[in-house]
Amino acid sequence: MTKNILIGGAWPYANSDLHLGHIAGLISGDVLARYYRATGNTVMFVSGTDCHGTPITERAKKEKKSPKEIAEYYHTRDKKTLEKFGFSYDLYTNTDTDFHRQEVMKMFKKIYDNGYIYEKIEPQAFCEKCNKFLSDRELQITCPKCGQVTKAEQCDNCRYVPTIEDMKEGICLECGSSIVLKDNKNLYLALSKFQKEIERYVEENDNLWRINAKNETNKYLKQGLVDRAVTRDLDWGVDIPVQGYESKKMYVWIEAVLGYITATMKKCEETGKNWEEFWKEEYNPIIYMVHGKDNIVFHSIIFNVLLLAMKENYHLVNTIVSSEYLNINDEKISKSKGNGIPALELADKYNVDSLRFHLINNGPEKKDSNFTEEALIATNNGELLNKFGNLVNRTLKFKELEEVPAGKLDENIKEEIEKTYKLVGENIEKLEFKEASNIAMRTC
């Protein structure tokens, strides 16, 4: 019996070129999509470029361009890169389409009408010199947990999420001034109301999750879910469909994850399919979310809360496919260091299939991994050429014969081939992609 499989790949910000770490974190989704299509299931593999929020406006200011120009430029670059790497998305879209905006606004209003989004006035970081409220990404603080200087969104080092108290000594990243705390009115998502439902969901579904997803999600649940602002003082983003909030925009984390649904809707509208078959409980779909470890809670907790809050019988995410980090030449990828290695640059330099295999076989599946071009070349020459290439070469030798001799497949060889196919498939379904590739190579 065929299944409906929804695979969502994380949405990269439209503020820089995709580096190899992005590809390493997303390629598991393409492996899953190709596998499930090959086994006869109905697959919807979607993603897109995240065009809104502070990272894009920051880049726009630097380059003296509009946020829309920046978003369009990097969306085009992202799409080209992913196509070059052979990603088989059914739809790779972006969050700046009219379709996405309108559908997300409907979902937001639904959650608001259901009573899970409410108004709250509380202190927020304000820069008197810039005369504006600051988003977490526009504010620099010293992490109270590990002591590292970081943006206030989340500590880059220990992933601690700062409180408003932690921001008192913050500095505006735009002008360097010390901030003050000033009352501001925002809408909040009542995450705390879903504590027990999310705990129950995690208990029922974490058997296939990677250990980092289990640990990160349970850490937040143990601390207790805290309600989170869903509106921001920005002029670039999705409008808020609530009276009195015309000057604010939707916080990017809420509208980007809802993009998995809007992308499915759009593709199904184009192909005459029913989008609900991939999202509603009555169709019993299987849903995978694929991303790096810094995006875990947005998919394991927040996205599922949004699905529950709509009260429309959505099926929650089954499996969190969260990779660790890919380092480059023994260094953590850092924008300030500029050591990310643009993925498109490597795809132009090396064979893409060799790159894909190397990232699957040596990538950050369960722990941080290190990429060097020397290691890539060793994989290509040792694994792909010497093993797989030798098998292909011996097979192609038959083309040189005037007549291929009749032969009979040895039963032991047949059994080994069938066993290999089965084991590779089982390991892919268990998210053991490295082991799946090792098993396939051992039969060459």
CATH architecture group name of the largest domain: 3-Layer(aba) Sandwich
Q: Any idea what the shape is?
A: globular
- Average pLDDT, all residues: 92
Q: For the record, what CATH class of the largest domain applies? A: Alpha Beta
Low-confidence stretches: none
Please, could you describe this protein's structure?
There is one protein chain. With 444 residues, this protein is of the alpha/beta class. The chain folds into 3 domains: 4-109 and 251-323, Rossmann fold, CATH 3.40.50.620; 115-195 and 215-232, Methionyl-trna Synthetase, domain 2; 350-442, no CATH class. 43% of the residues lie in helices and 17% in strands. It has a 5-stranded parallel sheet, with helices on both faces. A hairpin with a 4-residue loop joins strand 4 (117-127) and strand 5. Helix 2 (54-63) crosses helix 3.
Task: Furnish the topology, listing elements before pairings.
Layout: E1 4-9, H1 20-38, E2 42-49, H2 54-63, H3 67-84, E3 91-94, H4 98-113, E4 117-127, E5 132-133, E6 139-142, E7 149-151, E8 171-172, E9 180-189, H5 195-205, H6 211-223, E10 228-229, E11 231-232, E12 249-250, H7 252-257, H8 259-271, E13 286-292, H9 296-309, E14 319-323, E15 326-328, E16 331-332, H10 343-349, H11 352-362, E17 369-371, H12 373-396, H13 411-429, H14 433-442
